[in-house]
Amino acid sequence: MDAVAQTERGLRITEIFHSLQGESRPTGWPTVFVRLTGCPLRCGYCDTAYAFTGGMRRSQDEVLDEVAAFGTRHVCVTGGEPLAQPACLPLLAALCDQGYLVSLETSGALDIGRVDPRVQVVLDLKTPGSGEVARNLWENLERLKPQDQVKFVICDRADYDWAVQEVRARAIDARCEVLFSPAWQRQPAAELADWILADRLPVRFQMQLHKLLWGDTPGR
């Protein structure tokens, strides 16, 4: 399906909302989130299962108009797994064309090779604790840009040790910034921070700002 056909078919959207970015490089910036419906993965710590099904079919122009109404520079396209919808690609390009600072949150299980190069990709590599480690598409590491980020959500010490091994063996930190994030209500944040410091890891610790502010409230 070409880009024109994808655009005409539209997207299935769970929600579009305005909040503070809670993760990755733009943390703290007012951001419009475009949450696409559907995901082929079922991570054990998923906090957006409500986006697996349902949603409303929206045209690309409708999405762009709603985003513009918030008057915000930052836009994050997320899910679910946004790349599961082919029409996500022309949407990302259109947002960039309109001058937004665009980020994409993707699981890393789908090819990022056709994502507009102006988009900051946040690639969430799945740890063993997620239950979806086998879905990682390791070829995506070759497609990362210096502006992108790789995220590991750490569920326990076994996840941490696995992530450290992958970062070192694949020299991921030489490609782009690496994020280690504690799984919400599963991995104590201070403990993860201590592990990172003890091992002198070249990674960035992060917590989910939106969870600290609003808990598990959807659309925040």
Structural notes for this entry:
The chain is α/β, with parallel strands linked by helices. A nine-stranded mixed sheet has the order 3-1-2-4-5-6-7-8-9. Helix 5 links the parallel strand 8 and strand 9. It is globular, with a radius of gyration of 17 Å. The mean pLDDT is 93.
Could you name the key traits of this structure?
alpha/beta; TIM Barrel
The structure class reads: alpha/beta
- Give the overall shape: globular
CATH architecture: Alpha-Beta Barrel
Any idea how many domains? 1
How many H/I helical runs?
6
> Mean of the pLDDT scores?
93
**Name of the level-1 CATH class:** Alpha Beta
Tell me the strand percentage band. 15-25%
Helix content: 25-40%
| Low-pLDDT residue intervals, each spanning 5 or more residues | none
Radius of gyration: 17 Å
Condensed summary:
This protein has one domain: TIM Barrel (Alpha-Beta Barrel). The chain is built from six helices and nine strands.
How would you summarize the topology of this molecule?
Elements: H1 3-9, E1 11-20, E2 30-36, E3 56-58, H2 60-69, E4 74-78, H3 88-97, E5 101-106, E6 120-125, E7 149-154, H4 157-170, E8 177-182, H5 189-198, E9 204-205, H6 209-214
Helix pairs in contact: 1-3
